[in-house]
Design brief:
eight-stranded mixed β-sheet; alpha/beta; two-stranded antiparallel ribbon; 9 helices; binds 3-methylbut-3-enyl trihydrogen diphosphate; Carbamate kinase; globular
Length: about 270
């Protein structure tokens, strides 16, 4: 039996809580409903949120994921960081308004990357806050990178790191689709919904699922993260955050539409 911590790690995708096409457009109503669902569920969890149009637009403009190229990017780094912090404050306020004791843990202060991969992390603060019954919230951010000077740490990578550390009951991606499809449902009418999958079934999906104009890798990066989570024996759920109560239902073990990717359990 693999030990799993009785808690969840949930990532709210930037395309759910913001309009990715409009600069700094926060979807307040969607966020407030998700805050309420989290409150109603009453579970121990860590929340991560994506950057959406608050982060991707400036990060792309200043080519931040390519690392240091010119001095102008220093301003772009700071600007992008301020934008994602602003989004983070809106998320915290929404959670707080439902009575959730949300507290922000900014990634740039607790981890370092090298060539976009995490090399140094200090996650004990998440544990300390959880032990005191807080709701720790972190987010896709710009961070220092030993090789590139700086780069971007997506919320998906944060989810992977936190799952490795905490081994939760489930890792949950709240996205703007019902779950995984055989191809991109936004452009392919024949895309088939995948209810259940194992790590092997994900192998062919990396190439066919497109990523939108993101500075991070969009869906293909997500698939890589899900494979790593599954190899730790932790289940991943993908669900639609635009549909009422799907997050609540998953957190409370009720039936609801979603994709489940089974964690691979090694038997010795
Ligand atoms: C991106 O984070 C962070 C920045 C662009 C600074 P994510 O990759 O997790 O954001 P979403 O979910 O795609 O919006």
């Amino acid at each position: 039996m693999i030990y799993r911590n009785p808690m969840f790690i949930v990532k709210l995708g930037g395309s759910v809580i913001t309009d990715k096409a409009k600069k700094c457009f926060f979807k307040q109503e969607v966020m407030d409903r998700l805050s309420l669902e989290i409150k109603k569920a009453g579970k121990k969890l860590i929340l991560i949120h994506g950057a959406g149009s608050f982060g991707h637009i400036p990060a792309k403009k200043y080519r931040l994921n390519q690392g240091y190229i010119d001095q102008n990017q220093i301003r772009g780094f700071s600007l992008t960081h301020i934008m994602v912090q602003e989004l983070n404050t809106m998320v915290l306020k929404s959670l707080q308004s439902q009575g959730l004791p949300a507290v922000s843990i900014p990634p740039h202060a607790i981890l370092k990357l090298s060539d976009r991969r995490p090399i140094k992390t200090d996650l004990h603060m998440f544990r300390s806050y959880l032990n005191k019954h807080f709701l720790p919230v972190t987010f896709g951010d710009v961070v220092l990178d030993e090789k590139l000077g700086f780069s971007i740490c997506s919320g998906d990578i944060l989810l992977q790191i936190l799952v490795e550390y905490f081994r939760p009951e489930k890792a949950v991606f709240v996205i703007d689709e019902d779950g995984l499809y055989s191809s991109n449902p936004k452009i392919d009418k024949n895309a088939v919904f995948i209810e259940n999958a194992g790590i092997k079934d994900l192998k062919n999906l990396t190439t066919i699922l497109d990523s939108h104009a993101d500075v991070t890798q969009g869906m293909s990066g997500k698939i890589e993260v899900i494979k790593k989570i599954a190899s730790l024996g932790v289940d991943t759920v993908l669900l639609n955050g635009n549909k009422n109560n799907r997050l609540y239902n998953i957190l409370t073990g009720k039936n609801t539409k979603h994709t489940l990717i089974h964690g691979r359990i090694k038997t010795v």
